[in-house]
């Protein structure tokens, strides 16, 4: 039985988070998620040389953008828009 949603990290923070990527719901491990992880979830099987634009909205913090090599601390309910860039 998978109890990932009931497990907690130190200090009572959840070990998995419910987020949306391009409108689809995902449950992901935390406490952070990287640019590359988001790209892989949004576009499985896409080659790594494509540049993506990632914007996120956090229900309890600032909104922002994520660039290759960066990560963001997760909050339940975050929404991510991952789009292929027209640049290469």
- What is the count of distinct domains? 1
Largest sheet: 5 strands, mixed
Q: What's the arrangement of strands in the largest beta sheet? A: 2-1-7-4-5
CATH topology: Ubiquitin-like (UB roll)
Number of DSSP helical runs: 1
Question: How large a portion of the residues is in β-strands, by DSSP E?
Answer: 35-45%
Q: What structural class is derived from the secondary structure elements?
A: mainly beta
Assigned CATH class: Alpha Beta
Radius of gyration: 13 Å
H/E series, N to C? Answer: EEEHEEEE
Stretches where pLDDT is under 50 for at least 5 consecutive residues are 1-9
Shape: globular
CATH architecture heading: Roll
Helix content: under 10%
User: How many DSSP-defined strands?
Assistant: 7
Give the termini distance in whole angstroms: 43 Å
What's the CATH H-level superfamily name? Answer: Phosphatidylinositol 3-kinase Catalytic Subunit, Chain A, domain 1
Short description:
With 88 residues, the protein is mainly β. It has one helix at 35-42, and strands spanning 16-21, 24-29, 32-34, 52-57, 64-66, 71-73, 79-84. The chain starts with 15 loop residues before the first strand and ends with a strand.
Description:
With 88 residues, the chain is mainly beta. The protein has a single domain (15-84), classed as Phosphatidylinositol 3-kinase Catalytic Subunit, Chain A, domain 1 (Ubiquitin-like (UB roll)). It has one helix at residues 35-42; strands at 16-21, 24-29, 32-34, 52-57, 64-66, 71-73, 79-84.
Topology:
Blueprint: E1 16-21, E2 24-29, E3 32-34, H1 35-42, E4 52-57, E5 64-66, E6 71-73, E7 79-84
Parallel strand pairs: 1-7
Antiparallel strand pairs: 1-2, 3-6, 4-5, 4-7
